[in-house]
Amino acid sequence: MKKALLIVSVLFMTLSYAQETKQVPQISIVGEGKLKVVPDQATITTTVETKGNNAKDVKKQNDQQMEAVLKIIKKMNLAPADYRTQRVSLNPNFDYEKKKTTYNAIQTVEILLRDLSQYDTLMEGLVNEGVNRIDNVVFQSSKLAQYQSEARKLAMKDAKLKAEDYVSVLGQKVGNAITISDNSQNYQPQPVYAMKTMAMEESAATRETLAAGEITITANVSVSFILE
């Protein structure tokens, strides 16, 4: 009797498992959403570099130039939180042929410019007061979170549209989504590298040198839909 009950229990469990593992017709699609937007701000990284034979003099000259640079930044009425010193160094360089040591002082400051109409004025002021390297300029948007949300919605719409295209010839319909995976990579603004600018080579006359263009914000999703 016990043996019979055991067999019945095993059969019941097997049937239940088979029902639970029954495959559901579905389709898996990758959707993409893209937005091209005009940037409204930029992160500018600039460097003051000085060289000489005496470490104390080189450091003093570098500090004086950086002080003048910071005055220009403050004159532009930028918020204190929008600029910071990123790197400070003073290094000896020994020339083995001349048996002589020289010194190289560097100070780098990173600036968040929230008003691109100030770009040319700021860049000219920086160069005139001692900046001799524009390391990079990164154009970005202050509404990044909003645009990323819009791109995700576009990606979901794209996934559903693709799924409907595929199943339309099969006489089936796209049902509810059963899995959604966000495959988007964190947005990384692409820097515009420039070791020097036109302002370093020409006069300080007013001119426009900015061409920010557009930045692309992309979202990618993988979605599995039930087929009805």
Keywords:
228 residues, alpha+beta, 5-stranded antiparallel sheet, 3-stranded antiparallel sheet, 4 helices
Overview of the molecule:
The protein is of the alpha+beta class and 228 residues long. The protein has helices at residues 2-20, 55-75, 119-128, 144-167, and strands at residues 26-37, 41-52, 83-95, 100-113, 133-140, 174-182, 191-193, 215-227. A 5-stranded antiparallel beta sheet has the order 3-4-2-5-7. It has a 3-stranded antiparallel beta sheet with strand order 1-8-6. Strand 3 (83-95) and strand 4 (100-113) form a beta hairpin. Helix 2 (55-75) packs antiparallel against helix 3 (119-128). The longest helix has 24 residues, at 144-167. The protein is elongated. The chain starts with a helix and ends with a strand. The model is unreliable at 4-8 and 193-207 (pLDDT under 50).
What is the element string, with H for helices and E for strands?
A: HEEHEEHEHEEE
What strand order characterises the main sheet?
A: 3-4-2-5-7
Query: Kindly, what is the distance between the CA atoms of the first and last residues, rounded to a whole number of angstroms?
Result: 45 Å
Low-confidence stretches: 4-8, 193-207
Note the overall shape: elongated
Helix segment tally: 4
Content of β-strand: 35-45%
Percent helix: 25-40%
Largest sheet: 5 strands, antiparallel
Q: Rounded to an integer, what's the Rg over CA atoms?
A: 31 Å
Question: Which secondary-structure class do the elements indicate?
Answer: alpha+beta
